[in-house]
Amino acid sequence: MAIDNFTSTWMTEEHRMLQDSARRFFNERWVPRMAEWNAAGKMGADTWLEAGKQGMLCAAMPEAYGGGGGDFGHEAVLIIEQARANLSGFGGGLHSAIVAPYILHYGTEAQKQRWLPKMATGELITAIAMTEPGTGSDLQAIRTTARRDGDHYVLSGQKTFITNGQNANLIIVACRTVAADGANAADTKGAKGMSLLVLETEGAQGFRRGRMLDKIGLKSQDTSELFFDDVRVSAANLLGGGEGQGFFQLMQELPQERLMVALGGIGAMERALTDTVAYAKERHAFGKPIWSFQNTRFKLAEAQATVLAARAMVDAAMVAHLQGKLGVDRAALIKYWVTDQQCKVIDECLQLFGGYGYMSEYPIAQSYIDSRVQRIYGGTNEIMKELAARFM
Predict the structure, then answer these.
(1) 320 phi and psi, to 5 degrees?
(2) What is the pTM of this model?
(3) Which residues have CB under 8 Å from 179's CB, separation 6+?
(4) Are 121 and 58 contacting, i.e. CB atoms less than 8 angstroms apart?
(5) Cβ neighbours of residue 281 under 8 Å, at least 6 residues apart?
(6) Cα atoms in the 13 Å half-sphere on the side-chain side of 170
């Protein structure tokens, strides 16, 4: 299966043009710098400005707000091509296809005009802070609070596993909005009282970035702890025009996030399969290419069948999503199944590389360690199955 053969029914000529330019850009400009970023533990702010100049940020945002004026298909192409290039460190998908839609869908006109244009250029780098120590996928258990104090909220709490945490200068924080006297505390439990508050980090007293987390994979992805020690945030930075809407807002946007995870899985599997077929035809054992062994061909045929099935599933979900018809349950099932298959396929591919597959300099080794988190973030696969079962 050649990497160039990727095409889908939802793709237009414009999507294919973006696919070609993104592939060239990633491989020519960023792939050669991967070792540098892996050592640093993050990609620098300069890469965000470069991505902005290339039109690779906020591609689906309206042109009126500085975006590319495209649809989610444009973001999907970028996610797939990034995965194919093994560029796991760039948090542009989260920035453009997760954070930006929250602002577009729930922000006031003033908020959209203030933040989205600079997000499109890369001047603003964003994060969304949901997970806390001890909460994991249980968003209803978050403890970070935002206490109303006049025209401000006083934000207190801690977040962890935050993508773009070190670079971000605009952070959406999931928190519990409580009155100054705490009188409404009983009404803020569970899904009640949860709100999304946007923190502009520049000059924000009491805001601290913790350590950059040392992960087994995604070595160049900026992932951090964040601390909020009585940080004053303007009440005008609340998303949705009122308190207590956060859980609903999160649930509305999570299907797209989970589809994004699956799209990354497709790109990673296709890259792994393409590399492994090429290696099997070049690598010799016992005087002949390992491709000549039936076991090799059978394993790769099985992997190809899995990749084709996964891509067909995701393509159908893309069509539904572009029509506004992708449900929470379907997105959860797709995220779980595709990422499970991703780990299995890449494991089989690594096995065919033999000892070389265990060497860090081989892309298949990076794909292997990077793939493991796919079954965890965006909601663990166990939670995905539980969620989907509720709709049965």
Answers:
(1) -65, -45
(2) 0.94
(3) 147, 148
(4) no
(5) 289, 291
(6) 23
CA–CA distance, 234 with 203 (Å, rounded to integer): 13
Q: Write down the residue that tokens 């995220």 correspond to.
A: 335
How many CA atoms are closer than 13 Å to the CA of 346, on its beta-carbon side? 30
AA letter at 305: A
One pLDDT digit (tens) per residue for the chain, 392 residues: 454 556 788 999 999 999 999 999 999 999 999 999 999 999 999 999 999 999 999 999 999 999 999 999 999 999 999 999 999 999 999 999 999 999 999 999 999 999 999 999 999 999 999 999 988 667 788 999 999 999 999 999 999 999 999 999 999 999 999 886 665 554 556 667 899 999 999 999 999 999 999 999 999 999 999 999 999 999 999 999 899 999 999 989 989 999 999 999 999 999 999 999 999 999 999 999 999 999 999 999 999 999 999 999 999 999 999 999 999 999 999 999 999 999 999 999 999 999 999 999 999 999 999 999 999 999 999 999 999 999 99
| List 75, 253, 257, 270, catalytic entry | 257
Query: Hey, which residues does 178 pair with through a beta bridge?
Result: 147
Return the CA Rg of the chain. Answer: 21
The token pair that represents 67 in the structure block: 């975006």
Of the candidates 171, 156, 173, the one whose C-alpha atom is nearest the C-alpha of residue 227 is 156
- The residues that bridge with 194 in the sheet, in sequence order, are 176
**Cα-based distances in Å from 139 to 16, 72, 176, 232:** 37, 25, 11, 23
- Please spell the DSSP secondary structure of 240-260, one letter per residue: TSSTT-HHHHHHHHHHHHHHH
Q: How many CB atoms lie within 10 A of CB 16?
A: 14
User: Which amino acid is located at 165 in the chain?
Assistant: G
Taking Cα atoms as reference points, which of 275, 281, 264, 271 lies closest to residue 357?
275
Query: Is 81 noted as a catalytic residue in this protein?
Result: no
Q: Percentage helix, strand, coil, to 5, in the chain? A: 55, 15, 30
Residue 147 to residues 174, 188, 235, 271: CA-CA distances in angstroms?
13, 12, 10, 48
Q: Which residues contact 324 (CB under 8 A, 6 or more apart)?
A: none
Max distance between CA atoms of the chain, in angstroms, equals 79
Residue 346 CA to residue 34 CA, distance in Å, equals: 20
Task: For residue 126, give the H/E element and its range.
Answer: strand 126-129
